[in-house]
Design goal:
The complex is a heterodimer.
Chain A: E1 8-21, E2 24-37, E3 41-46, H1 52-59, E4 67-72, E5 75-76, H2 82-90, E6 92-95, H3 107-117, H4 122-135, H5 151-163, E7 169-173, H6 181-198, E8 201-206, H7 209-215, E9 218-223, E10 226-232, H8 246-253
Parallel strand pairs in A: 3-8, 3-9, 6-7, 7-8
Antiparallel strand pairs in A: 1-2, 1-4, 4-5, 9-10
Helix pairs in contact in A: 3-4, 3-5, 4-5, 5-6, 7-8
Chain B: H1 3-7, H2 9-43, H3 53-68, H4 71-77, H5 79-86, H6 92-116, H7 120-128, H8 133-164, H9 175-184, H10 189-217
Helix pairs in contact in B: 2-6, 2-8, 2-9, 3-6, 5-6, 6-8, 7-8, 8-10, 9-10
The chains are: A alpha/beta, B mainly alpha.
Chain lengths: 261, 220
């Protein structure tokens, strides 16, 4: 894998997001700062309700942060007018647990839609759709409908769709959580290829330890809306772990016995 | 027995033509204005993308008021509007005005319902790839909801056919008016039954066509 220095392609700076509930406010993301290095696969792990998915949605501003700034590729998304933000989103791919394909159109049309939105001419679109389909290994399914595909194949289509505009950053929201273990491994291989082969930085939110173990170069642990631990897989970055998160770090790094209170 | 039916053949065709004009224009109005109105109703609902309490309240009130009016009274109440739009309150074209207004209100509700069935994740995916409002509507929402939209239009069309039968009161004509005037009021039962059969066939045709198109469009 080509390492493009330590440049942060994504920076969250003191980002917070709360939701109004019947009984007061619920702080989904609480004063989180995070740098994601270009070329890395950054995992965000934590239990459900820890704020992982909200954090991911703050990156492309599907959720508007109450406070803090989001910087992608040197551009401050939080200050962008909506038209510019839409342009920026074209270069930030996203995939979801439930795939979220347009089920009434074919696989190739699904992949073509982001290109249509970006105003890419038809000839170029067709070429790009074919490339993306080849990349995820579904060239023979081009004219099928999503309902005719398996879950793993649908996620591949979603990945191809997310890649069609050649993004620099790919956001993954529990991409394997509705797939069986074998299919999960296939999808993780595709994500590795995207990172290694295309140099796309990947941010993946998951509650599955195995996904983080087999995929991620960097890990952040979330708990109650905060990042309570961050470490890198390669260079054994031993910042003190917060209480109760030692277990995540130990399991991921394969070390037992690191002390925690 | 069929003499009377044959005798009124010309009037019958004329009536069918009038029904087609009234229903056709209402369907046109439903598509042209009911579809955008329904989309707006959907977007400003609580929890939706452009949630807007005030607009939602205003639009919902208008739609509900139109839909709760006894239809004949709506026709009467709208006479000034009809005069303004068509120049007269009498005749087939005049009859299309109240019909179209009901059509817009009626179909907008069904549009709203169909759009609510589109998974929120699809909207999220659309926004994540930088879709504009129009992109979201035309490349995602209407595409995913299309079989429901067609089915809703089918149901609406049949309602419009039914509404159109009372338009005789303002000289709108149509098959229903034919059945009442030539069949019922002149005690020509065969003519009345004939007209009712025509209505039944018409409704069956609409339902069959709409149902088939909707099924063919649904790839989910």
């Amino acid at each position: 894998m080509e390492r493009k220095g330590e440049f942060a392609i994504l920076s969250l700076s003191r980002v917070s997001k709360g939701f109004k509930l019947k009984d007061g406010m619920y702080q989904a993301v609480d004063d989180v700062s995070l740098d994601v290095k270009k070329g890395s696969i950054h995992g965000v792990i934590g239990e459900s309700g820890a704020g992982k998915s909200t954090l991911l949605r703050l990156i492309n501003l599907l959720e508007k942060p109450d406070q803090g700034t989001v910087t992608v590729d040197g551009h401050n998304l939080t200050e962008m007018p909506s038209k510019q933000l839409r342009k920026a989103r074209e270069k930030i791919g996203m995939i979801f647990q439930q795939f979220n394909l347009v089920n009434n159109v074919t696989v190739s049309r699904n992949i073509s839609i982001p290109l249509e939105l970006a105003g890419v001419p038809k000839r170029e679109r067709m070429k790009r759709v074919k490339e993306c389909l080849d990349f995820v290994g579904l060239a023979d399914k081009a004219e099928q409908y999503p309902a005719q595909l398996s879950g793993g194949q649908r996620q591949r289509v979603a990945i191809a769709r997310a890649l069609s505009n050649s993004p620099g950053l790919l956001l993954c929201d529990e991409p394997t959580s509705s797939l069986d273990p074998g299919t999960t491994a296939d999808i993780l291989d595709v994500l590795k290829d995207i990172n290694g082969g295309l140099g796309v930085t990947v941010v993946i939110v998951t509650h599955e330890m195995d996904v983080v173990k087999s995929l991620c170069t960097h890990v952040s642990v979330m708990e109650k809306g905060r990042i309570v631990d961050s470490f890198s897989r390669q260079d054994g970055d031993f910042r003190p772990a917060a209480v109760r998160t030692g277990s995540y770090r130990d399991q991921i790094l394969g070390k037992a016995g690191e002390t925690h209170v | 027995m069929f003499d009377s039916v044959l005798q009124y053949q010309a009037q019958m065709w004329e009536s069918i033509g009038e029904t087609f004009i009234m229903v056709g224009i209402s369907v046109g109005a439903a598509l042209l204005l009911g579809l955008p109105l329904g989309t707006l109703l959907f977007f400003c609902r609580k929890g939706q993308l452009y949630e807007n309490k005030t607009l939602s309240l205003v639009l919902n009130s208008i739609v509900n008021i139109i839909r709760s009016f006894p239809f004949l009274l709506l026709v009467v109440a709208l006479i000034p509007v009809t005069r303004f739009l068509v120049g007269t309150a009498i005749g087939t074209m005049a009859a299309t005005v109240p019909l179209s207004i009901v059509a817009i209100a009626y179909y907008s509700r069904l549009v709203e319902q169909s759009l609510l069935e589109v998974p929120k994740g699809v909207i999220e995916a659309a926004l994540s790839m930088g879709a504009s409002k129009l992109g979201l509507i035309f490349k995602f929402l209407y595409v995913e909801a299309r079989s429901g939209l067609v089915l809703g239009l089918t149901t609406s069309t049949i309602s419009f056919i039914s509404y159109s039968t009372v338009m005789g009161v303002v000289g709108g004509g149509g098959v229903g008016d034919f059945a009442i005037r030539y069949g019922y009021q002149r005690f020509e039962t065969e003519v009345m039954i004939y007209a009712i059969i025509v209505m039944i066939v018409l409704v069956q045709l609409v339902q069959f066509t709409g149902g088939t198109i909707s099924r063919l469009l649904d790839k989910r």
